[in-house]
Amino acid sequence: MQLNDMSLLRQQCYIDGQWLEAINGEKVEIADPATHKVIGSVPVMGTTETKAAITAAEKALPAWRALTAKERGAKLHRWFELLLEHQDDLALMMTTEQGKPLAEAKGEVAYAASFIEWFAEEAKRVYGDTIPGHQGDKRLMVIKQSVGVTAAITPWNFPAAMITRKAAPALAAGCTMVVKPAPQTPFTALALAELAERAGIPAGVFSVVTGDAIAIGNELCSNPVVRKLSFTGSTPVGIKLMQQCAPTLKKMSLELGGNAPFIVFNDADIDAAVEGAMIAKYRNAGQTCVCANRIYVQDRVYDEFAEKLAAAVAKLKVGVGTEAGVTTGPLINSDAVAKVQRHLDDALSKGATLFAGGKLASLGGNFFEPTILTNVDKSMLVAKEETFGPLAPLFKFSDVDDVIEQANDTEFGLAAYFYGRDISLVWKVSEALEYGMVGVNTGLISTEVAPFGGIKSSGLGREGSKFGIEEYLEMKYICMSV
Ligand code: ADP
């Protein structure tokens, strides 16, 4: 990997403003999921190093929280600018360790940076309240204060944005943070730390610890100094972390799995629906938690939609993300490929029709061809589990109430999408979908200005928007007798 600025490729952890090896010197090599070539190595840290990072965050807290919001915002703004100045290098690093096409990686860097810019500004808008007194001599106020030391555990599918979406509001609010990135994508996380250091964010305010997920996770969850944990990842791990955090009663934000329905009604603009489905299904090779997992198409437009979707899928180019024109990179690893194959085989064995794709791409390895299945029904695994790959199952429906029931028939409640034009239908369906986010006539809903998050088994809390900073603030009620 040839970066313009090779010092962004850090192979040590960043704790208390220092670049460190693991105490026992252990390292792990990280490979490119497209080529299997080793990119470099990172330390395998555990409990002791995590404790040190938490202690550093505790030590850094008083001075960081005592800065004015404007002062903290200025440092965050510099961090934001540095991400954009190094957008090309960060994108190349991300493509190399994660696989997504370079254009998508550049988009993610901009998206990741946008959270830092947004919360640099929001820091100044942490307003309190005054409340009319309940007795003549009482004056009541509410002020908001930072939660304190926080921790984040992040996934590999958005190696930069899932960190900044947590760290930016935390730091803006006056919290300090220890991050454990996904084992597959440590370099982007460490590059963010390098840029935070260059932005003048003080030692201990933002640390990154790589290594043994269980040991690091245990310490982050059980250490009483940590007052909040923010996690993005799978529902089973989220539940485990919540259990581990219970004895110390930490605040929690959990962004967990999804099983997004994508509904196309008879009166939809079909070309627009196809365009939206392409983004909602095939972006990041289908590896986003808001990816359309079940596509429901109403009977009169089912065939037209399937054909137009297949035509669009035929234009996708599978390959190594750094190559020109590639739209679909590899999946993250062989387990991910096996899961898509399992969902495909299960559907075919229960009567689904292979409408497009369906093979491991000719490149082999972790590549999987973008695929469409028709004649899908709810007995199949694709109806129940998140595929997390480039497989689009098309369910046919005729009745509106029936499709709403099917769309809601899942433990998950992150994102849902639908295309239709009748205004009363649009309202009815928007309100009836049991999801934290609904895209109406659009397949792309993520932005730093809106609250991202789910209900049911998809998690707790919201990230981004004016609401996102609340997750890192405590309310204090002051009752004054005058
Ligand atoms: P995925 O299947 O997408 O990798 P996971 O939920 O397994 O999702 O992983 C998301 C993040 O959670 C990663 O950083 C991973 O290392 C971390 N993780 C997984 N298991 C644990 C655990 N038991 N304790 C702490 N962190 C964990």
TrEMBL record:
Domain Aldehyde dehydrogenase: residue ranges: 19-478
Superkingdom of this protein's organism: Bacteria
Keyword annotations of the record: Oxidoreductase
GO cellular component: a single term: cytosol
Keyword Lipoprotein: no
Entry annotated with the keyword Cell inner membrane: no
GO molecular function: succinate-semialdehyde dehydrogenase (NAD+) activity
BP GO annotations: gamma-aminobutyric acid catabolic process
PROSITE patterns cross-referenced by the UniProt entry: ALDEHYDE_DEHYDR_CYS, ALDEHYDE_DEHYDR_GLU
InterPro entries tied to this protein: Ald_DH/histidinol_DH, Ald_DH_C, Ald_DH_CS_CYS, Ald_DH_CS_GLU, Ald_DH_N, Aldehyde_DH_dom, Aldehyde_DH_Superfamily, Succ_semiAld_DH
Enzyme active site: E255
Family (UniProt): Belongs to the aldehyde dehydrogenase family.
Record's protein name: Succinic semialdehyde dehydrogenase
Taxonomic source organism: Shewanella halifaxensis (strain HAW-EB4)
